[in-house]
Specification:
The complex is a heterotetramer, with 2 copies of chain A (220 residues) and 2 copies of chain B (233 residues). Chain A has 220 residues and is of the alpha/beta class. The two termini of chain A are 24 Å apart. Chain A has 6 helices and 14 strands. Chain A has a single domain, classed as Glutaconate Coenzyme A-transferase. In chain A, helix 5 packs across helix 6. Chain B has 233 residues and is of the alpha/beta class. Chain B is 15% helix and 26% strand. Chain B contains 4 helices and 13 strands. In chain B, helix 4 links the parallel strand 12 and strand 13. Classes of the chains: A alpha/beta (220), B alpha/beta (233). At the A-D interface, helix 5 of A face strand 3, strand 4 and helix 2 of D. Chains B, D: Keywords: Transferase.
């Protein structure tokens, strides 16, 4: 991987995403959601996607719009059902989309594991519940754990606050959420930011996502 | 007299030790924040990546990048810190939170929790961070009404709804009583407008009167709630 | 755990550490090494310790001085042998100290696992080497992994740059190293810092170790 | 003529693609940094928690909080970033580094690496980050002399020293030749002052002449190194 490319447009930033891809999409609700990249992905046309994101779309924009276009075959998320998730709800009830519900912390840790080269890990969350059914368990030091596997993305689309020209990223408040872990786990990592600054203008102590993880950046 | 939501929240707040790190679940448990004593140094965690969360934002304070787990705009306090989701749930799973307060559909006599899914065929399952909190927090307090609107007990021998966690609940705060799950069984700590005997009759689980008061508990409130006849599930 | 206590002295900061404890000690060489806490621990007198640290002491001060006093039964580290590790070298050759060598990344990840509630994890590092001998392995997606277990500390002694009065910590440059993960994995976490500032003076975006992990802080 | 350390370092530097993220092992591999072309955007990682590490610090620049994996004071460059050890090794283990350059005691014909322990009874084992790098980097380049001072080959059928990693080495840069480990065997890419035939005689592993030059390689240098008669291990 080389340093990030600063793109001129969201369209350039999402170019080349293939049908059938698994796409990690950052954000918790709308905070940190890379809405402009999703809009560009809708225009770009990739379909038959698996989307990994905490929620399954809000209102009629962003991820919800991608779902409404019928581009998503499967959602992997922790919390699809929200007051404004009517697009997903309709597709789900019509049997037009697959759903894998993953506890929120397992979602984050499985994505981290993919980025960190961990083959699998034993996790105490969900033991004895329907979400652990059929999964391997193991007792360690008197506690029962479920074996969980990494979740990788062909692509990660994330929202951040600022980037420098190398692709070092900082986030803003709780919009940080899934961005930093998804950036480690995508084969192609694209960040939507508010501003691109010159390299050297971000304090090396406060960079959250180092440039090594970032392929493309677009300021919107 | 039975407790209002705010009275339940105040009771829970009073039971949280000064200096504790606490996560309040979405919905009713959020009310606990309004009753935490000022100056007790209780620090709120929100699983979407923040410690020392402040009160809900009002008016111009609202910032779409600063929300709680219920996606409500909130505020910072001095000493707040942000972190990403894997770090936030590592904090939770690693047993660093002293208390979490969660709502529930059902709690079993051995502390199993069901609060994420009604199991109905047309319901869309959504778990969020509930299982992580149930498995991770040092102490799990449930805040719920003791009976459904139809009068069905929510404290049950075995949960019939899909589980969130096994044996994870420590205390149950309800409008009619506070229960502590112990090795000796379900201990009734407080009652509100109902007698221990009536509770024992209306609930389908064996109850233990609170250990520091061997004599049967007098009814604290004045009137008995009308209460539908409970169906046993 | 409650907010951190700001201590008046290193002696106060290490009070109560018991014989037989496992102690995580931060630092990579001398960068981030909490030398004043180790000196205080020597005075405090706890013995029969297991020490987990990247190295096994440099020169005659800090961890080397603790070793020289005969207080350490076992070292768990990645790189004991250094040009100035004569204290450890002498004890080891004399059979007076146990050594468990752990690959550096496994050391960091095993400590993280302890802090993150992970029961065990499958790691590709060291497969087929003497350091994986006798450990369980598993093939996942065509690659072989070794099962690694958490390393917990009764105590973590770490060096940081600044703390606020709640115990939120920031570090300085590569002195950050093991501090943030050890802070998550110690039952009692003590930080030596250069300065304690008022709560609110550290930017919430740049705090590396949130106060929840820190029990005692002392400025030296 | 055989290559000096700096010539080896320069050769490796020339083979690293612009924009690569690279970790240089302690000791001799550090020399590669001196030969990386300016402006190629090659970013150095040091496993003690830094990306975009600058050159060694001189004089007053030295800061005890800013060191490399060899514990030598170094400097920042614009775009540097710091992170903790678990994040640093997650970066490594997760396959995000394009190249690491490591020294070696021995490399086997199938790319096994031995570089952390001589296995002698009085040696104190110390592995550091070597196993993590061997397992994690996308490409592992070894930089070593081809023979020990006693003339013993370090490219061997099977390592006799304790392993650092199995089948992890991609290329071996030595003073006398550059080798590429392939599915077809050990390919000799370059030779320096030695013929392919002599290499084949002196090394205890089957060699493949480089694929793009089917004819036997002429000796590039003038004089043959004296070289002790190699012992086969």
């Amino acid at each position: 991987m080389t340093a990030a490319r600063i793109c001129d447009s969201p369209a350039e930033a999402v170019a080349g995403i293939e049908d059938g891809s698994t796409i990690l999409i950052g954000g918790f609700g709308l905070a940190g959601m890379p809405v402009r990249l999703i809009d560009a992905l809708i225009d770009q046309g990739a379909t038959d996607l698996t989307v990994v994101s905490n929620n399954a779309g809000n209102g009629d924009t962003g991820l919800a719009a991608l779902l409404a276009k019928g581009r998503v075959r499967k959602m992997i998320c922790s919390f699809p059902r929200q007051p404004d998730s009517w697009v997903f709800d309709g597709l789900y009830r019509a049997g037009k989309i697959e759903l894998e519900v993953v506890p929120q912390g397992n979602l984050a840790e499985r994505i981290r594991a993919a980025g960190a080269g961990i083959g699998a890990f034993y996790c105490p969350t969900g033991v004895g519940t329907p979400l652990a059914e059929g999964k391997e368990t193991r007792d360690i030091d008197g506690r029962t754990y479920v074996l969980e596997y990494p979740i990788r993305g062909d692509v990660a689309l994330i929202g951040a606050h600022r980037s420098d020209r190398m692709g070092n990223l900082v986030y803003r408040k709780t919009a940080r959420n899934f961005g930093p872990v998804m950036a480690t786990a995508g084969e192609l990592v694209v960040a939507q930011v508010s501003e691109v600054v010159e390299t050297g203008q971000l304090d090396p102590e406060v960079i959250v996502t180092p440039s090594i993880y970032v392929d493309r950046v677009v300021a919107v | 007299m039975s407790l209002s939501e705010h009275e339940m929240a105040a009771l829970i707040a009073r039971d949280i030790e000064p200096g504790s790190f606490v996560n309040l679940g979405i919905g009713r448990p959020t009310l606990v924040a309004d009753h935490l004593p000022a100056g007790a140094g209780i620090v709120l965690h929100t699983e979407n990546g923040m410690l020392n969360m402040g009160p809900a934002a009002t008016g111009d304070q609202a910032d779409p990048d600063l929300i709680n787990a219920g996606k409500v705009p909130v505020t910072e306090l001095p000493g707040s810190a942000y972190f990403h989701h894997a770090d936030s749930f590592a904090m939770m799973r690693g047993g660093h939170l002293d208390v979490c307060v969660l709502g529930a559909f059902q709690v079993s006599a051995r502390g199993d929790l069901a609060n994420w899914h009604t199991g109905e065929p047309d319901a869309i399952p959504a778990v969020g961070g509930a299982m992580d909190l149930a498995a991770g927090a040092k102490r799990v307090y449930v805040m719920m009404t003791l009976f459904t609107r139809d009068g069905v007990p929510k404290l049950v021998p075995e949960c019939t709804y899909p589980l969130t966690g096994v044996g994870c609940v420590d205390r149950i705060y309800t409008d009619l009583a506070t229960f502590v799950i112990t090795d000796r069984g379900v201990v009734v700590r407080d009652t509100f407008g109902i007698s221990f005997e009536e509770l024992s009759v209306r609930l389908p689980v064996p109850l233990v009167d609170r250990p520091d008061q061997p004599a049967p508990r007098p009814v604290r409130g004045a009137s008995q709630p009308a209460g539908d006849s409970p169906r046993r599930s």
